[in-house]
Specification:
Layout (H helix, E strand, L loop, with lengths): L3 H17 L33 E17 L2 E15 L2 E8 L8 H14 L10 H11 L4 H19 L3 H4 L12 E3 L5 H10 L6 E4 L4 H14 L5 E4 L7 H13 L2 E5 L7 H10 L4 E3 L6 H7 L5 E5 H4 L2 H13 L3 E5 L5 H8 L7 E2 L12 E2 L2 E3 L2 E3 L9 E2 L4
Parallel strand pairs: 4-5, 5-6, 6-7, 7-8, 8-9, 9-10, 10-11
Antiparallel strand pairs: 1-2, 2-3, 12-15, 13-14
Helix pairs in contact: 2-4, 3-4, 6-7, 8-9
The chain binds magnesium ion (MG).
C-alpha cells in the first residue's frame, strides 16, 4: 500500500510539473536518413509529466536487404516517418510507411502531424479518449491514411503502456492462436535467383508469390518454386494483374493443383462484378487487398470476395482495423493481416491483431536492413506475442 506521504508528494510533484510543462506542441522534424533515434533520445523529453500530449516525428529511410520488385517498379529504400507521443512521462511509438507507388510522402505526413499537433491534441489531456482523439484527427483531412496510422499506433502504444498490458491481451485474444506469417518471393528474370530465394525461404511454413506478369511468367514462377519446394502451401498475389475473369478462374484451378491456398486481388480493384463472379466459382478463397482500404469498404465487398487483407497503413491504424475485424467476422468473411515495408513498430502493432486472423503477411521488418526497433518475434514463421505493454517495442541504440 502506498504510504500517504509518498502519495501526496507524488501528487504535488505531478501537479507542479504539469503547470510548468509547455502546453503547446513540439514539432520534431529531423530528416536524418537511415538512422535511428530522435535528437535527444530522451524517454519522454519535452512532455515529461505534461498533461498535454506532445507529438514528435522524424523522417527515416528503411534500407531494403534486397531490391524489392513488384509489378511496374523496383526499389532499394522506403521512406518512413516515425512518431513519438509523450504524455505524463510515458512515450508511445508510431510509424507511417510510404511506398512510392502510393500518394503519401514524408512531407505530407509531416504536414498532417503538424495539423494534428496544433488542432487536435491541445484539446485533450487524456490519451484514454482514443475514440474522440482519432475521430477528430481523421476528420481533419481526407486520405492521409498512413499519417493517421502513425498517430493511431503511437496513441495505442502509449495507452497500452499506461495500462501495462499489450493490446492483444486488452482486446481479449489468445496469443496461441496467432497464424504463421508468409514469406514473399518476388518475380525475378533469373531462374537461379528464384531457386536461391526459394531455398532461403525454407524456414517458412507459407510462401507468397507475386504474380500478374502474364500467363507465361506466372506459370514459370510457380513451376520454378515447386521444383525446389514441392510441399509448402502458397498464397498468390496477382496485384490486379489478371485482366479477364474466365482466365482468372482457369488460373485458380491450376494454382489449386500446385498447392496454392488463397489468391489475393486477382483483378482490377474497381471491378466488383468480375470478382463476385470469380468468388462464386473459384476453388480458392479470393481476398481483397487493393479494393479494401477502410471499414466502409468491408460491407461493399461482402459477397464479391471471400475475405479482406487489412493493413494498418490503409485503414488508419489499430482502432479501425479492430472494427474491420468485428464487421468482417459478423459477415462471415475471412481475415488476413498484411503490411508495407515497415519497421518493427508498425509490424508489432499489426501483430497485436494477428490472433483474430486466418492468414498473416507480416514480413516487412525482416526485409529491411536497418530496423531500429525490437518488437514482434517469429518462431519458425509463427507470430509470437509477448507481455510487453502497448505494441511491445523497444527502441534500439537509444538508452
Ligand atoms: Mg497484396
Amino acid at each position: 500500500m502506498t504510504d500517504r506521504r509518498t502519495f501526496i508528494k507524488r501528487t504535488v510533484m505531478m501537479a507542479a510539473a504539469a503547470a510548468m510543462a509547455p502546453s503547446g506542441i513540439l514539432a520534431g522534424a529531423d530528416s536524418r536518413s537511415g538512422q535511428c533515434g530522435i535528437s535527444s533520445g530522451r524517454h519522454c523529453g519535452p512532455g515529461a509529466c505534461s498533461r498535454k500530449m506532445i507529438l514528435e516525428w522524424e523522417d527515416f529511410t528503411a534500407r531494403m536487404k534486397h531490391t524489392f520488385s513488384i509489378s511496374g517498379s523496383s526499389r532499394d529504400t522506403t521512406p518512413i516517418v516515425l512518431t513519438r507521443l509523450h504524455w505524463n512521462g510515458v512515450t508511445g511509438y508510431g510509424e507511417a510507411s510510404l511506398p512510392p507507388y502510393l500518394p503519401e510522402t514524408q512531407a505530407s505526413v509531416r504536414s498532417y502531424l503538424k495539423k494534428v499537433s496544433e488542432e487536435v491534441l491541445p484539446r485533450f489531456d487524456d490519451p484514454f479518449r482514443i475514440e474522440d482523439i482519432l475521430a477528430e484527427a481523421d476528420a481533419l483531412m481526407p486520405g492521409n491514411t498512413a499519417a493517421k496510422a502513425s498517430l493511431d499506433i503511437a496513441l495505442h502504444d502509449l495507452v497500452g503502456r499506461l495500462i501495462g498490458q499489450p493490446w492483444w491481451k486488452i482486446w481479449g485474444w489468445d496469443a496461441a492462436k496467432t497464424p504463421y506469417t508468409c514469406y514473399t518471393i518476388g518475380w525475378d528474370a533469373s531462374d537461379e535467383t528464384v531457386f536461391e530465394k526459394t531455398r532461403e525461404a525454407s524456414w517458412s511454413k507459407i510462401l507468397k508469390v507475386k504474380l500478374g506478369r502474364g500467363d507465361e511468367q506466372d506459370r514459370r514462377m510457380i513451376r520454378l518454386i515447386r521444383s525446389v519446394n514441392p510441399e509448402t502451401p502458397m498464397f498468390v498475389d496477382a496485384n490486379q494483374g489478371w485482366k479477364d475473369k474466365e482466365y482468372a478462374l482457369d488460373m485458380t484451378g491450376w494454382l489449386k493443383e500446385q498447392g496454392v491456398v488463397m489468391i489475393e486481388q486477382p483483378m482490377d480493384k474497381y471491378d466488383i462484378d468480375a470478382h463476385a463472379w470469380l468468388t462464386e466459382r473459384s476453388p480458392l478463397p479470393v481476398i481483397a487487398d487493393e479494393a479494401c482500404q477502410r471499414l466502409s469498404d468491408v460491407r461493399r465487398l461482402y459477397g464479391a470476395y471471400s475475405g479482406i487483407n487489412i493493413k494498418l497503413m490503409k485503414c488508419t491504424g489499430m482502432r479501425e482495423a479492430r472494427e474491420m475485424v468485428s464487421l468482417a467476422r459478423a459477415l462471415g468473411m475471412k481475415l488476413m493481416i498484411g503490411c508495407m515495408t515497415e519497421t518493427s513498430v508498425a509490424i508489432s502493432a499489426a501483430a497485436q491483431l494477428s490472433p483474430a486472423m486466418e492468414w498473416a503477411d507480416l514480413d516487412g521488418n525482416i526485409l529491411i536492413a536497418n530496423d531500429c526497433f525490437d518488437g514482434m518475434k517469429l518462431d519458425k514463421g509463427k507470430i509470437m506475442l509477448g507481455d510487453a505493454p502497448g505494441i511491445g517495442v523497444t527502441e534500439l541504440g537509444m538508452r
